[in-house]
Specification:
Layout: H1 6-24, H2 26-31, H3 44-47, E1 71-72, E2 75-77, E3 100-106, E4 116-121, H4 128-143, E5 156-158, E6 166-171, E7 181-186, E8 191-196, H5 201-215
Antiparallel strand pairs: 1-2, 2-3, 3-4, 4-8, 5-6, 6-7, 7-8
Amino acid sequence: MPSLGPRTLLATIALTTTLTLTACDPAAEAEAPPAPPAPPAPSAASATVSAPASSTSPAGSGKHTLAEAATAGGLTKATGAGAVSDVPVDPGEMRDGMHLVVADYNRAGQTSGRRILFVGVDSVPEDPNKRREHLWRGLIDYALQNGSTGTPTTAKPYQPGPFGGSLECLSLPESANTTDVICGWSDTTTAAVALFPRTTPADAARLFGAMRADLEH
């Protein structure tokens, strides 16, 4: 190993000492620029794709009309001498542009006995729920021969179908025909009721929804 002279040895020692003090000097560390902060991780909310601004209208919105149908929900409209010829239920105030539909329907293969009675109005100017309640009470009176003690508040809701709104049914235990059921629907512009002899509320609701698909447009 080559020997170093005194001057060279002293210079090397001094340089080494200077580098060591610089590395450990707090002032030197303060002068160094701070490292940039790491970007924050995206939150779950920012990572979620927002919903589109436009959407389709909910079921039951818009104006609907009622029209008689030769068949409704698989039922056949009664015609001839045995068909309903008057308006057995007061539909409430009828104004220009409103349509009243009154018809009775036979079940498949039915040739006698009580039919399903339907009464409905469209272009209702007031709250259609109130018009449905008016129709409902009138149909209860008709079914009980003006001896009604029933109330629409005892009705149970069922699926209304593609037109939306609400559909409810109730049984008439105070009737002489204890298996009679009354159903009613209402949406943005229509209200309708029907009397179903000898059935259950669930079956009547299913059939009423099917009728609605053919009677409401």
